[in-house]
Write a structure and sequence with these properties.
- By secondary structure, the protein is an alpha+beta fold.
- The protein has three domains: 53 residues; 28 residues, no CATH class; 32 residues, no CATH class.
- It contains four helices and three strands, in the order H-H-H-H-E-E-E.
- Strand 1 and strand 2 form a beta hairpin.
- It is elongated and about 105 Å long.
- The termini are far apart.
């Protein structure tokens, strides 16, 4: 075998290996693109589904309970207020304390939440 043929055979082997490597890279890239497209599709669906749902404010929920379910919210407020000692709250100030198995949060002399 001549020197020129050896060089050509060597170059041929190199090019085959390079081609195989590129085909493998191409396959990996196509798989990554497919995964990205799947994730984009899921994100777009979530965005679309989110747009279908109406968010309900706490105020609307309160009015629904009061007006549609006919719950006397003012009576509930009075009942809750009667269970809290305003004198103690004024003395203590901002605080968190146990309340009927839950935790009550007082800020600026107002009961802001119970959880």
């Amino acid at each position: 075998m001549t020197n020129k043929i050896k060089k050509l055979e060597h170059k041929k082997d190199f090019l085959k290996k390079e081609k195989d490597r590129l085909i493998k890279d191409q396959s990996n890239i196509q798989r990554k693109i497919a995964n990205i497209n799947k994730e984009l599709k899921e994100i777009n669906k979530e965005i679309k589904d989110h747009d279908k749902n109406i968010e309900i404010s706490d105020h609307a929920m309160l009015r629904y309970i009061e007006r549609v379910l006919d719950v006397d919210v003012e009576s509930l407020k009075k009942e809750l207020s009667s269970k809290l000692s305003k004198t103690d709250i004024v003395k203590i100030g901002d605080c968190d304390f146990p309340f009927n198995g839950h935790k009550a949060i007082i800020r600026n002399k107002n009961l802001i939440t119970i959880y």
